[in-house]
Specification:
Aldehyde Oxidoreductase, domain 3, three-stranded antiparallel sheet, 7 strands
């Protein structure tokens, strides 16, 4: 699973939601010929990314090269159940990446268009957002 090796600050403050914005960075294919583009905004965690990566690699077997274009570096905290308010911020539960519409999540090369489309469709099924297949 993906998470930072070291962090300067263990816990982050909450940020204002950016629901109605579109992504401006990471919106075009940079490495491969095929990609998976986000169409909704959501937090994607490291477990979901790993499940999507496994689904893709399992489908293409040994062929092709895969690039993961996002990295979950935002810590999410959670307090244990049945704990009263106060007592400080909860412990870090995991790491997420805040995805905005238009962001390229995965890229792929070295396989046919049909194989890439099916592999990326399977990967998109593991994510909590609507995605679409893009090619050069």
């Amino acid at each position: 699973m993906l998470f930072p090796k070291r962090v300067k600050f263990r816990k982050w403050q909450r940020m204002a939601t950016r629901r109605n914005l579109k992504e401006t960075r990471g919106v075009s294919l940079a490495f491969g010929s095929f990609g998976l583009k986000a169409e909704e905004a959501a937090w994607v965690n490291s477990k979901q990314l790993e499940a999507a990566r496994k689904a893709m690699t399992n489908f293409v077997q040994r062929g092709g090269k895969i690039w993961i274009r996002i990295f979950p570096d935002k810590p999410v905290t959670k307090k244990p159940p049945e704990v009263t308010m106060g007592g400080g911020k909860g412990d870090v539960e995991g790491y997420v990446f805040p995805v905005l519409p238009g962001r390229i999540l995965f890229e792929m090369d070295g396989v046919t268009k049909e194989a890439a489309e099916e592999a990326l469709r399977r990967a998109g099924a593991k994510l909590p957002i609507r995605t679409k297949f893009v090619s050069r």
